[in-house]
Amino acid sequence: MKKRIPLIAHDLKRLYTAFIITALVLFVVCSFLTEFNVMTLIANSDAFWEFITEDFFPPALPKTSRIPGVLSSVLVTLALAMSSTAIAAVLAFFTALFGSEKVSPFPRFAKVVRGFATFLRNIPALVWAFILFSSLGIGTGVGFVALCITSFAFMVRAFVETMEDVSQDCVESLQAVGATFPQRVSQAILPSCLSGFLSWFLYCVEVNIRASTIVGMVGGGGVGLTLFSYIKSFQYDIAFSIILLIAVMVIAVDQITGKLRKEILK
Amino acid sequence: MSVNSKENILVLNSPKNKPKRIPVKCKQTNRFIPVFLIGVVVLSVLSLVYLEIDWIKMFSRIPQIGEVFWDLGHLDFANIDLIFTSLIETISIAVLSLLYSLILGIIFGMFAARNVFNIPFLSVITQSFFTFLRAVPTPVWVLLMLVCLGMGPQAGVAGLCVHTTAFFTKSFAQSFESIPDETIEALEVTGANKLTVFTNAILPAAVSQIVAWAGMRLETNFSECAILGMVGAGGIGFVISNSLQGYDYGTAGVAILLVFIVAYCIERIFVRIKKKFA
Amino acid sequence: MQPILKFNNVSKHYPNGVHALRGVSLDVKQGEFISIIGPSGSGKSTLLRAINRLIPISGGEVLLDGEVISKQRGKSLRRQRRKVGMIFQNYNLVYSLSVVQNVLHGRLGYMSGIKGVFGIYSEEDKQKALDLLKEMGLEQFSYNRASDLSGGQKQRVGIARAIMQEPKLLLCDEPIASLDPSSAKTIMELLHDMTQKRNISCMVNLHQLDVALKYSTRIIGLSKGEVVFDGPPEKLTDEMIEKIYGTSRDNLMIGGNADEKADTADCA
Q1: Is A3 in the C-facing interface, judged by CB distances under 8 Å?
Q2: Which residues contact C226 (CB under 8 A, 6 or more apart)?
Q3: Cα gap A176→C160, rounded to integer Å
Q4: Under DSSP, is residue C233 helix (H, G, I), strand (E, B) or coil?
Q5: Under the phi-then-psi rule, with left for phi > 0, alpha for psi from -120 to 50, and beta for the rest, what region is C202?
Q6: How many Cβ atoms sit within 10 Å of the Cβ of residue A177?
Q7: Is A9 an 8 Å CB contact of chain C?
Q8: How far apart are CA A22 and CA A41, in angstroms?
Q9: Which band of pLDDT confidence, cut at 50, 70 and 90, is reported for residue B28?
């Protein structure tokens, strides 16, 4: 038989084949470990469907006396996300100044600062919440701190990257002029990076709206806790309307931040 | 931040008290930014007031945080086999949901992108449906799947898939739409149908972006996955929450450390891959 | 002999009120090499795109190989389209794929559903693509990414892709506008040779009058969407040129470059 004519270069083909084989192996191994099978899911789809149509639809409103409580819990979630992100942003800004070798007055410690941020960032917000719950007790304040920690760590990284991208040249030139550290920050970094910082800040608000709902579920208060209690008491139709409410809240915030971001980057 | 916003406002107001100051900033500075900054400050203060956090109580308990960390630091490897199997389970859930969502995301992304089938109605419907799915946080989906499928990793995979697919649909559609119309035109004039154009031109051109999105998502999926256990879907999260609630800080410490190490490794690997592709 | 392409009183106006084509009628016979010239906005690009229905026309009809293409849709339109190859100013290759894969895209119109979707080409087609690349002098780049090539090379791949379609008619939309003079010459010569050898009719939109005069067997002059000249290059008098461009030939030679840039901007 004649040899088949290849379509792509040999080494590229090997790379792709390796990639696909890895993916397949991972797929098989993981399916085995988690015992997840699409077929069973499809086989059970009628029970699934029944559950959705019977228990969730139509979405029902909670008792009239509870509605103000639900709405105020939405406000708590929003407030939690907003305030924690703002505080974290201020802290992250000052920390990020010391996290970039090019900007920091103590370049040697930049790595330490970044490492610290990496450590904080790679532990999920909910884990922080659990650690704090066991030391500070359950409450909104703990949710606030947990959100603060992760968004602080995230923004330190984002801010450092923004600074390294944008302001390298102007920082150097101001250094050459003989400007002091605070002068460099206020005259070079802030003007050139502010819009980038704010854009990351908005992104963080979006993330935190979702995260604060989650942290709420395990005891941080807010609409997450409300949802959790309805699910636990098997009132799925009410839970579904709360889910819709959460979706509306998140989409609204995304829309607003999207608009604001456009204005800022103008 | 507030100090900075005041400074900007002074500059903006400078025409009013003109004789003294010579303006140095260019005139088209973004007037929106100071307004935005003030808005943020006001909103945050209002939020803090609304939340009524008992700061005194919080601060008085700060030493306890130190204690907890001290306890966490005393790593206890007695339950290492349990921790390890649940960690593997967590990684499996993350990878599996990623793989399923990749395929689903490409399919739905194809419908959601405006330039593939050129049916605006279809794109709008797909996009708004997945916007809804994306807007609801993952643990909520997992909770619902737990109710439908019962406890265990199955619910975790299914729940994560919902959110990940929604995320991929949006981002892949964006990547597909960024391919120039002329390239699509060039294949259309060969007489190829829309699906063929998609698989032969749009998809290959978007592959590098798809890899980047997938990498980014694996990071999120892993940390989401670590959370899932806390709401009851098995995996390492269950170990962490369980041992924290049972004051078994040593075990929790090991588990948290492992979560950190894996998350960090995933992040590093994808920074590498991204550099290679760029 | 039946003409390959026939325009019957074709007109096109855009929603914004621009009349790109007004009552254009013309025939194209097999093996002709036609240059279409005219100032920016005279409807050159619209004329070409009306042929394979990339732009739907507003009046009249376009007959390709004896069939009305202006009313066809779906599968029959795709079948008609594969008879017409097209070459673009910006090459429009898929840059993340290999050169061979890009050339083979020319076969997609001939392939059945599933094979086309997964890009499973027959050995015959692959061999043909490699031979074609050899003829173009690109064989050593066959397995490079299309993005690695220079502009002239990319355009050669574009030509190979169009030839792979085995078209009866080749449309070239400003094929050399983004190229340096020496690559431009190679491309024009290649276009001329390939189409003459295979007896393919070729229609080229051009800005460079001298190039048009050198290669064409026939020149069509467009002005404000109307055909003002249609004949062999010898008959294109200075007077005629002035009528097409609204300026004298001398001005054209100096102003040619600026004009070209303006048109590129228009296209974008």
Answers
A1: no
A2: C22, C23, C24
A3: 56
A4: helix
A5: beta
A6: 11
A7: yes
A8: 25
A9: low
Confidence of residue B30 (pLDDT cuts 50, 70, 90): low
Distance from CA of B214 to the nearest CA of C (A): 18
Query: Class assignment of domain A66-265?
Result: mainly alpha
Amino acid making up residue B18? K
Q: Which CATH number fits domain C1-83+209-268: 3.40.50.300, 1.10.3720.10, 3.40.50.2300, 3.40.30.10?
A: 3.40.50.300
- Whether C57 and C70 have beta carbons less than 8 Å apart is answered as yes
Whether B149 maps to a domain, the answer reads: yes
Q: How many helices (H) and strands (E) does chain C have?
A: 10, 10
Note whether B31 and B77 are same-domain residues. no
Which chain C residues in 66-95 lie under 8 Å from chain A, judged by CB atoms? none
The pLDDT tens digits for A113-137 are 888 888 888 888 888 888 888 777 7
Residue B225 falls within a domain, yes or no? yes
Q: Which 3 state secondary structure label does DSSP give C70? A: coil
CA distances from A29 to A75, B49, B92, B237, C105 (A): 44, 51, 8, 21, 37
- Is residue B225 domain-shared with residue B162, that is, in the same domain? yes
Residue with tokens 């791949």: C157
ipTM for the predicted complex: 0.80
Average pLDDT for chain A = 83
pLDDT over 90 for what percent of chain B?
A: 15
Which of the other chains make 3 or more beta carbon contacts under 8 angstroms with chain B?
A: A, C
Among A58-67, B160-169, B206-215, C45-54, the minimum mean pLDDT is found in: A58-67
- What amino acid occupies position C131? D
SS3 track for B22-74: CCCCCCCCCCHHHHHHHHHHHHHHHHHHHHCCCHHHHHHCHHHHHHHHHHHHC
Cβ atoms C89, C175 nearer than 8 A: yes
Per the CB < 8 Å rule, is A29 touching B92? yes
Question: Of A126, A122, A130, which is closest to residue A147 (Cα–Cα)?
Answer: A126
Both tokens of B216, joined, read: 């980014």
Confidence (pTM): 0.83
Who among A5, A10, A12 is closest to C126 (CB)?
Answer: A5
Is the pLDDT higher at A182 or at B194?
A: B194
Backbone angles phi, psi at C236, to 5 degrees: -80, 90
Nearest Cα to B159, choosing from B240, B85, B237, B225?
B225
Question: Which residue, among C78, C69, C49, C166, has the nearest Cα to B193 in the 3D structure?
Answer: C78
Bin A222: left if φ > 0, else alpha if -120 < ψ < 50, else beta.
left
